[in-house]
Amino acid sequence: MTSAESSTPATISQLLATFALTTETGAIPKAVRDKARIHFLDALGIAIASSKFDFGASVLAAAREFGSSNQAHAIGSGVALPAASAALVNGTLAHGLDYDDTHIGAIYHASAPALAAALAAGEATNSNGADVLSAYIIALELGCRIAGAAPGEFHARGQHPTILCGVFAAAAASARLHSASTEALTNAFGLAGSQAGGILEIGQSWLKRLHPGWAAHSGLAADALGRAGFKGPSSVFEGQHGFYAAHLGHVPQGEHLPSLGLGQNWHTLGIALKPYPCCHFLHGAVDSALTLRDQIQLTDIARVDCLLSPALRNLVGAPQEEKIRPRTTYQALFSVQWAVAIALIKGRVDLAAFYDEPLDDPELLALAAKTYCLDDPLSDYPKHFPGEVRVTLKNGQVFTHREATSLGTPERPLALAAVEKKFLANASRALGTERARDVCDTVWQIDEMPHIGDLLALCKT
Asked: What band does 8 get if pLDDT is binned at 50, 70 and 90?
């Protein structure tokens, strides 16, 4: 490096790479590590459950066409694959049920790409559980920071920040576990920027399920290229043709810089768990509906109004006919009318309600048809995803409940018992109760695990 180069201020990617590779495990606050262990368990349980769904079989079949290797394994099936292919499968599984966590301010599904990359790279490097958990935390942190630099802006442009930003997170996890140099990871980030893309034109497709898997796959590829000496632009984030300029039309500044306060302010602490297997934008409304349920008789309902952030109307509230009569389960996951109807009628919003029970239930159809989505003038989206439900009875009486933020967010965290219950319900669908319990206990002790591959072996059906 020349003296001129050494005096040049570090770029964002150089700062992120240095943080990713030099932050010692002991420097990660206990609160962050404890939270990450919870989210690791949560995402793993979702991936295990997803392995038994049709989309899980499909992505596994495609990944097997890419070749075989004993580097890493697919969750659930236990199929041996090259690490990048295992990351593709496992990231898709972790997000496949739309039950995985979200950083609210960033509107970013943090765990799916991070977990997939950390597990695959961890197996490939024969890493222990403590190192894999640390790599997972670094990936969580960087993904949240990169996505959180532009709150709500990616969605407003029809782009999915989970795949756009997850590729950088995945590259960081892989690089850390492969003991890459800062220069190599900086190159990888530059290469990852050209692989970052993902539209939200979903329709009836499975596209969104693929996004974290492809981010993890691409991140591992970028890391491998970087370690092999393939050059990437160090100005990938702030450059005039870089990641933010291309996707947003501007580069975030000041407090929105993803490199600001690294190691001091942990964005990982802002990640929210999902108590319901549907779009996180609906959760405040579901919470409100469940609260109102015991105050009313279903037969007395004349109309239900759900107040939502105006920016979300076209995503989860319109068009009305599609939302009140979803043709696929995945459409139902993004319908506030449908989710609120399930909450009011069944008193539970779980996997069974969406996947095991009929979408054409006459009672659900009738109540969904009475349910409307209105703009919420009090919304502070994207800072929070508030939800308000107003139930008007046939006699004119109105019952209203509002949640400023949904259950599972940092302001209203899920109890540890609820996290375990969710994991066991998910994992037992594929593993049975006893094995699911074993996996749960193992994750709680992941810091003591000598080989992360032992955890993948436990997850094999």
From this structure: confident
Mention every residue, 6+ apart, whose C-beta is less than 8 A from residue 26.
none
Residues 6+ away with beta carbon under 8 Å from 316: 279, 281, 282, 308, 323, 334, 335, 336, 373
Task: Provide the token pair at 121.
Answer: 């790279």
Looking at residues 94-123, what average pLDDT do you find? Answer: 98
**What is the chain's mean pLDDT, rounded?**
96
Amino acid making up residue 318: A
Distance between CA atoms of residues 309 and 289, nearest Å: 17
Please say if the pLDDT value at position 215 is more than 90: yes
Domain ranges of the chain: 11-275+443-458, 280-403
Report the CATH fold assignment for 11-275+443-458. Answer: 2-methylcitrate dehydratase PrpD (1.10.4100)
DSSP state of 264: T
Rg (CA), the chain: 22
> Which pLDDT does position 68 carry in this prediction?
93
Identical fold at 11-275+443-458 and 280-403? no
**pLDDT value, residue 203:** 84
Write down the CATH number for the domain with range 280-403: 3.30.1330.120
Name the CA dihedral angle for 293, 286, 417, 122, rounded to a multiple of 10 degrees.
Answer: 160
